[in-house]
Amino acid sequence: MITVLKPGVPEEQLNKLIDWFEEQGVSVHVSKGEFQTVLGLVGDTRGIDGDLVASLSMVESVKRISEPFKSANRKFHPEDTVIEVGNTKIGAGNFAIIAGPCSVESEEQILEVANKVKASGATMLRGGAFKPRTSPYDFQGMKAEGLELLLKAKKATGLPIVTEIMNANHLPLFEDVDVIQVGARNMQNFELLKELGKTNKTILLKRGLANTLKELLMSAEYIMAGGNENVILCERGIRTFETYTRNTLDLSAVPMLRELTHLPIVVDPSHATGIARLVEPMALAAVAAGADGLMIEVHNNPQKALCDGAQSLTPEQFDKISKKINRVMEAIKE
Ligand code: PEP
Ligand code: MN
Q1: How far is 256 from 168, CA to CA, in rounded Å?
Q2: Are 255 and 248 in contact (CB under 8 A)?
Q3: For residue 41, what pLDDT is reported?
Q4: I need a labelling partner for 138 at 20 to 30 A (CA). Which of 24, 31, 62, 148 fits?
Q5: Are 247 and 209 in contact (CB under 8 A)?
Q6: Which contiguous run of DSSP H or E holds residue 53?
Q7: Which atom of ligand 1 is nearest to the CA of 207?
Q8: Could you give the residue ranges of the DSSP H alpha helices within 184-314?
Q9: What region does 86 belong to: left with phi over 0, alpha with psi -120 to 50, or beta?
Q10: Neighbour-count burial for 17-43, b at 16+ CB within 10 Å, e otherwise
């Protein structure tokens, strides 16, 4: 249930109302926007008399939220969420460019890619250390050593780092990681999501291979229900009957999610297409669709990459896209 207050309600009255709601066994999420204060009630709100709340002089309106996701719901929090990551921001017009290799392979590799993507305008560095591979015989990532190398690259460039977690037991290793990625294959690993909900880390939650947007939002809700509201959603393509591309990029997810949620939305054209030459057109289309950021795989030598070489761009190709991103952003400004 959400309660929209009239403008200018004194703090004391606001606190009394919050206490009254809490006495009825629900928790209250306060969203103070520029024009409106919205109280989002989470928990079992069936016992709360909506008509009584609506009759209070300080209340403008009361709505019951029909969607099963509450904290992630835009009705609950009308303004776009802005998440600060290191010295950058994402959301509400702050655009994030997350770039780097699929996997960390060596110190030279990650440092070279990190320096180059930074010079081209990347705002965060990605790199997998724990890799979820379809085959157990494929390279599984450098694991803890890979995280150490990412931290070196962070120190050298100042770029915040984004890397995937596969097991909640590994959380202590992720202490200095800025953004923890939950990969497509773990989107519904609810025990992992619950553990991440107890942290204050920013979580980049990727859409599962065959999951609906509602399921994606319910997974975000798992994290948020634990108290961690720093969630970024990522559309990375879904499985369809098409086989020319690795997945099918569901670009309509961007404006649809924009309506449904206040959380920042990132698009990953690399995993969505699986083909390096398709990354640029889909990245630019994602910007035009209103994404808050892009995640792009960049490798210093894609032909020799241990993972996802076919979809990885060279630093030079990334540089070219990066410049075009700004032009598309300018073009769609109102
Ligand atoms: C990745 O980002 O390298 C990755 C494994 O992505 P996804 O979970 O989207 O397949
Ligand atoms: Mn990859």
Answers
A1: 31
A2: no
A3: 94
A4: 148
A5: yes
A6: helix 50-54
A7: 9
A8: 190-197, 213-225, 253-260, 269-273, 276-288
A9: left
A10: bbeebeeeebebbebeeeeebbbbbbb
Measured from the Cβ of residue 164, the count of other Cβ atoms closer than 10 Å reads 24
pTM, entire model: 0.96
Mean pLDDT of 17-25: 95
Read off the pLDDT of each residue in 11-15 and give the average, rounded to a whole number.
95
How many angstroms separate the alpha carbon of residue 44 from the centre of ligand 1?
36
DSSP class of 169: G
* Token pair belonging to 89: 């921001």
CB 112 within 8 A of CB 300: yes
Q: What percent of the chain has pLDDT over 70?
A: 100
With vertex at residue 83, the alpha carbon angle to CA 175 and CA 212, rounded to the nearest 5 degrees, is 95
Residue 14 in this model has a pLDDT that exceeds 90: yes
Q: Which helix (H) or strand (E) holds 59?
A: strand 59-63
At residue 34, the 3 state secondary structure works out as coil
Indicate which residue's Cα is closest to atom 9 of ligand 1.
184
In the reported structure, the alpha carbon of residue 119 is separated from the centroid of ligand 2 by a whole-number distance in angstroms of 22
3-state SS class at 177: coil
Residues with CB under 5 Å of ion ligand 2 are 102, 308
Note the residue count of the chain: 334
Task: Name the most confidently modeled range: 36-40, 249-253, 330-334.
Answer: 249-253
Q: Taking CB atoms and a 6 Å cutoff, what residues make up the pocket around ligand 1?
A: 102, 128, 132, 183-185, 206, 236, 271
pLDDT-derived band at 35 (thresholds 50, 70, 90) equals confident
**Distance from C-alpha of 58 to C-alpha of 10, rounded to nearest angstrom:** 9
Residue 241 to residue 174: CA distance in whole angstroms: 37
